[in-house]
Write a sequence for this structure.
């Protein structure tokens, strides 16, 4: 048995078809909008990733530069410390050498007293220094001809020539 035909069936069918068509159109626009949103999001993500890569690379270059500068400063500090150690050792050995030369009579102690009196006057008070040499005093003046001072002066007179110690052979 078939159901009696309703006069509204064609209207319902048309409304249903129109609703389906409208739903399909809305769904198509929604899909297109979603596809466009995904496309834009991917483009934005690619730009953000590219910027992040660039920033990361720049940060990496900056960090590498800082590390190179730090390493160079550390190396220079170690070299300066080594130079100071070598110079201190040279100073000790020079002082010992001058003291030994005075003990061995390379320069008679009387000669130091004569030099002091010649520079400060006959009234200069001369004092022998342990380790060799003398100090002399006159009113307002003092002269140090001790072994250590003579050794230090000899090193100071080398001036920039002392740099030859650090040159590669």
């Amino acid at each position: 048995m078939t159901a009696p035909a309703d006069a509204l069936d064609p209207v319902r069918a048309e409304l249903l078809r129109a609703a389906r068509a409208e739903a399909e159109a809305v769904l198509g626009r929604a899909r297109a909008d979603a596809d466009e949103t995904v496309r834009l999001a991917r483009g934005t993500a690619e730009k953000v990733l590219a910027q992040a890569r660039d920033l990361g690379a720049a940060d990496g270059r900056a960090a590498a530069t800082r590390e190179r500068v730090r390493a160079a400063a550390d190396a220079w500090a170690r070299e300066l410390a080594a130079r100071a150690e070598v110079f201190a050792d040279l100073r000790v050995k020079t002082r010992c050498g001058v003291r030994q030369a005075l003990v061995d009579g390379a320069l008679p102690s009387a000669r130091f007293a004569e030099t002091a009196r010649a520079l400060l006057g006959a009234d200069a008070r001369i004092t022998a220094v342990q380790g060799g040499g003398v100090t002399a005093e006159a009113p307002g003046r003092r002269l140090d001809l001790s072994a250590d001072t003579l050794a230090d002066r000899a090193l100071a007179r080398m001036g920039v020539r002392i740099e030859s110690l650090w040159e590669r052979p």
The chain has one domain: 11-166. The beta strands are 125-128, 133-138, 141-146. The first strand starts at residue 125 and ends at 128. The two ends are 119 Å apart (CA to CA).
